Amino acid sequence: MTTILRLRPLFLAGGAHTQLLSARGPVTANQLRDQALRLAAALQARPEQRWALWLENTGEFLVSFMALVLAGKTLCLPGNMQPATASALSRHFDALISRTDFQDLACPAVTPEQLHAAAAELPASDGQSQGDIQLMLFTSGSTGEPKAIGKTLDLLERELHVLQQFAGQQLGQQPVLSTVSHQHIYGLLHLVLWPLLRRAPLVDGVFQYPEEMLASAIQWAPVTLLSSPTHLKRLPENPQFSQHHGAITQVISSGGLLEAEAARDFQQLTGYAPLEILGSTETGGVAWRRQDQSLLWQPLPSVVCSVDAESGCLAVHSAHLGQSEAFVMGDRIALQDDGRFELLGRADRLLKVEGKRVSASEMENRLAAHDWVAAAIVILLQGRREEIAAAVVLNQAGRDALAKSGKLAVNQTLRDHLLLAFERPVLPRRWRYPAALPANAQGKVVMADIHSLFAAEDSAP
Fold first, then answer.
1. What residues are paired with 20 via a beta bridge?
2. 326, pLDDT greater than 80
3. Whole-prediction pTM
4. Residue 82 reports pLDDT greater than 90
5. HSE on the CB side for 324, CA within 13 Å?
6. Closest to 261 in 3D by CA, of 177, 153, 385, 367
7. By the 8 A CB rule, do 125 and 71 touch?
8. Core vs surface per residue 368-382: b (16+ CB within 10 A) or e
9. How far, in Å, CA of 15 to CA of 134, rounded?
10. Which CATH superfamily is 7-295 part of?
11. Which of 38, 72, 156, 390: CA 20 to 30 A from 350?
12. Rounded to an integer, what distance in angstroms lies between the CA atom of residue 50 and that of residue 27?
């Protein structure tokens, strides 16, 4: 049985190899270690134990993550820090490392530069903190509130061991660049920690635009691209990608299901289908597939998948789950005799759009809290692109605003209201204002009728 590699010794070991590729030049593992130990000294000199980490720069995030681990602190990784979300999550942390100014937060906030300045007057930490490191990640829960998911460094190390067994040799040490954030478990593992274990350089930055991503891929070719269906399904139609796709020789996709047509278009252009990883914040990685090989999902090494008898949903056992009993996911499945399975669709009301998971109930509750809104329901429309649509029943004040200012103005007002808690890519793109939500004789909302509100040929937003 192979030994699980531990992250703290890995952080401390360093190395002369290049681990980060940035605009300022290559950075070695030794340099990252030395920076992290200086920050760890500054963190150990402070009384706060629970630290939130919110940094857009991948290199800064990596060094700060290493420093918090080496200092023995508890890490909190918010999925987004929109004002309302930051306020709601603030009870989970005592201090914050960020470059963003959160004026409404009562806790101390420091930048990496401030920590470096404080460390200049201190001896470097030896990084020999004791005990397992606690982490807190967040995902949308079925209750509508951001759901805190507790992890430990040991569980992350166990999952990295599984990933390394599965595809470490295949991916090797070529540079990794990403269109997904390191703030979520997918990016944390696949962009930050797993490349560190493989000695594969991280390309600094999260690339939101294909032109920037392709320019970086060409510069550091050949590269592995870490992405999501939202980005991948648009790449084949990009002229620059058609010309330079050879710079990208490996593609990993997660954060949603890659549609069959998108996988086929990608394969026809590049000669291979992306490696898709199925998982969640709660479970970590569960299964994989390449659609040029099979549409069925194959459990990752040491992961056991079964069907929950009560719900018909996917039940997961694994060493990196953190519990002895199975975790039941929200996906219905058809299990094959050989252990592979087919996904049959979601059994809950968590919507996935633009590679992000959104609680429908949370968004509906936020809309209902607006002064113009009596009731609201949101759905996911799947057509040429996935988008969230909102059916909103306005109260008298809302109807007056609609009559006076028009639909587009009301749309924008409600979008601005949601922007306090949700990131812009997941906001509703389609809006309808029925007099009442369609319901059956029992008073329950009929989802098919909600969808029919948006099925008309009228394409107005």
1. 27, 202
2. yes
3. 0.80
4. no
5. 0
6. 385
7. yes
8. eebebbbbbbbbbbe
9. 26
10. ANL, N-terminal domain (3.40.50.12780)
11. 156
12. 28
